[in-house]
Amino acid sequence: MKKTKLLTLLPFMAMMLTSCGNAKPNYIIEYDPDKVYNIGICQLVTHPALDQATNGFIEAVKEGLGESKVKFDQQEAAGNSDTCLTICNSFVSKKVDLIMANATPAVQAAANSTLDIPILGTSVTEYGVALNIKNFDGVIGSNISGTSDLAPLDEQANMVKELFPEAKSVGLLYCSAEANSKYQIDTVKGFLTEKGLTVKTISFAESNELQSVLTANVEGLDVLYIPTDNTCADNTSVIDGVCRAKKLPVICGEENMCKGCGVASLSIDYFNLGKKTGQMAVDIIKNGQDISKMAIAYDESPVKKFNKTICEELDVTVPDSYIEIA
């Protein structure tokens, strides 16, 4: 999950340049069984998917370190990237042992705040895009690693043809301020175009533009697709109000968005994603793993799900392989 403007990432990029000519910093933590470890959690916004990722992270860390051996400083930025930076700077001042950054702006803020404290991101679609790394190979090579919420975009594109074989025109809705959303849209657009579908990109810059922009662009569409976009996720009621009135089915990149406005989704489990991030934290703190060598991890078991209420209202039939969203 992504949001708002990209930060400049000056400290991060300076570190990447400097490390090319200097000895690499030592990112390995020497575990002390008598110490209580402090972990700062910066979450972009209160949202079911991000909440689940944070809860999974906390559970896994408690299981791995022991509940008495860890303290969490959990803060939420109300959707503001500048607040993320303030929060992460406060973690650095407090000298926390590790930062968990939940969503792209939180990771960007953490990257700007420290070159030394280990940072684990989660709910980030594409780290190369988020951190402006060209030819990203999956390992950042610094004090940053984490997990990605990217589900297979080709399979999400396949859902359009699977559920709507007669569809000819597909709208792609996203917030233009979210770099990771544009990455998903560009990728899905290619897959849909290969299938012979006409694609219409619908972008908006701020949430207060969403309703008017969407209303002005839905005519003639057979299906609407939305990636894992934070601004859209915060405004599913607006999207649902426009699309359901037009009998326009929506395929979403994530289950919780689908619950609010969609008919179906190929969705990852954000709680499990958070747990995987927490297990990485345990490996760093307790097991001596070098974060600079840790590859970005993924949820490798996305599930096809459907929204029964909206499907019934729009007379959409889904295959038996789809699971109803609770």
Could you walk me through the main structural features you see in this protein, from its secondary elements to its overall organization?
- Helices cover 41% and strands 19% of the residues.
- It contains 13 helices and 13 strands.
- The strands form two sheets. A seven-stranded mixed sheet has the order 7-6-8-9-10-12-13, sandwiched between helices. The chain has a six-stranded parallel sheet with strand order 2-1-3-4-5-11, sandwiched between helices.
- Strand 4, helix 5 and strand 5 form a beta-alpha-beta unit.
- Helix 3 packs across helix 4, helix 6 crosses helix 7 and helix 10 packs across helix 11.
Which properties best describe this structure?
326 residues, alpha/beta, 7-stranded mixed sheet, 6-stranded parallel sheet, disordered N terminus
Supply Rg: 20 Å
Structure classification? alpha/beta
Flag low-confidence runs.
Answer: 2-8, 17-21
Largest sheet: 7 strands, mixed
| Overall 3D form | elongated
**Counting H and I runs of at least 4 residues, what is the number of helices?**
13
Helical residue percent band = 40-55%
How many angstroms separate the termini?
A: 21 Å
Give the strand content.
15-25%
Written as H for each helix and E for each strand, in order along the chain, the element string is HEHEHEHEHEHEHEHEHHEHEHEEHE
* Count of strand segments: 13
Report mean pLDDT, rounded to a whole number: 92
Q: Numbering strands along the chain, what is their spatial order in the largest sheet?
A: 7-6-8-9-10-12-13
